[in-house]
Amino acid sequence: MRSFPVRIFKRWLAVMVIGILAASITVTAQSAPLPEAEYWVRLQQTNTVLQQSLASGLSDSAITQINALWAGVESFVLPDGQLFSLDVAWLRVDRALTPDDLRTLQIRIQALLDYHAVQTGTTESAESSLAALERVLQDERFRYEQAPSESQPTNSRPFPSGGFSAAAQLILIVIGIGLVIALMVNFARGLRIQRTVLLNDAAPEDDPITSAAALDRAAESQTAQDYRAAIRYLYLSSLLLLDERGVIDYDPSLTNREHLEQVRPRREIFELLSAIVSLFDRVWYGFAPVDEALYQGFRQRVERLQQVTA
Predict the structure, then answer these.
(1) CA 158: distance to chain centroid?
(2) CA–CA separation, 33 and 77 (whole Å)
(3) pLDDT tens per residue across span 129-186
């Protein structure tokens, strides 16, 4: 009779051990580091979804897709086995992000991807690159600490105090120069937005002076499949329409943002015109490829603005 409780206890102990091992395996799997190549693939996928969202609006499915790409990602591993911690919080999106926030995020990601594409397989002076990095790498989100790697030999020689391995230098160079490019792009874009609302592909005296005439020009450009010009005339028609209805005081010498500021007190009109201005800027200054789908989306926003101001 004494042996029965012992057998029960042994079985219970075996079940507990198996459960602990299974939980350990699950945790290990969840925290598995991301291969470096997979990091760039996911970054490209995120960039693609952001570009689509900038053209058609941020949908719930896009939010889910982007956040799923970076769920559980806490570190990445180089081909030589070195492991680094990774903060991807800056890559996650939600409904609170404005179109300008999304555009800034997409520009940063594109800059990283562009630099990676150019620099893959090349080397650069570590001293000059790290000096540039030290000037711009102020954001805590981009400061990565090397995590201990279990696969590292115990007899390996430690790096000199204050030094970096070649792989660590490459990662820091990529991140630092990417940030420099992103800042330069943002700065250039800010300067371009201060230009006047319309760049004169046609002479100023040839531009329509009524919203109806501008719509006719847009239709002609669409028929000729010149979607960039069609978007320009649609945008001009929206400003002329607002002027005709007494909403703004249209002046060709004013900038996009100056026209937009005139409707800031009228929230619904301001939000619609803000989206139209942002999309026009990306098209006219070369940030977005122009096709019929983008044109149709832009036309729908202009028609919505016409309805609201009727």
Answers:
(1) 38
(2) 6
(3) 455 556 555 555 555 555 555 555 555 454 454 556 778 888 888 898 988 898 887 7
User: Residues near 59 by Cβ (< 8 Å), separated by ≥ 6?
Assistant: 53
Residue 146, beta-bridge partner list: 84
203's tokens: 């002479």
3-state secondary structure 147-179: CCCCCCCCCCCCCCCCCCCHHHHHHHHHHHHHH
Rounded Cα gap, residues 47 and 60, in angstroms: 16
Domain boundaries, the chain: 34-149+164-193, 204-308
How far apart are alpha carbons 297 and 276 in whole angstroms?
A: 10
Q: What amino acid is encoded at 186 in this protein?
A: N
Instruction: Give me the residues paired with residue 34 across strands.
Output: 76
What does pTM read for this prediction?
Answer: 0.38
- Residue whose token pair is 């030999």: 153
Of 85 and 157, the one with more pLDDT: 85
- Continuous segment of H or E residues that includes residue 84: strand 83-85
Q: By 3-state DSSP, what share of the chain in percent is helix, strand and coil, each rounded to 5? A: 65, 5, 30
- pLDDT digits 0-9 by tens, 254-304: 888 899 999 999 999 999 999 999 888 888 876 667 888 888 999 999 999
Give the model confidence (pLDDT) of 19-66 as tens digits. Answer: 544 444 443 444 588 888 888 888 899 989 899 888 888 888 889 989
Tell me yes or no: is domain 204-308 CATH 1.20.120: yes
Q: Which value, to the nearest 10 degrees, does the dihedral of the CA atoms of residues 25, 74, 50, 103 take?
A: 170
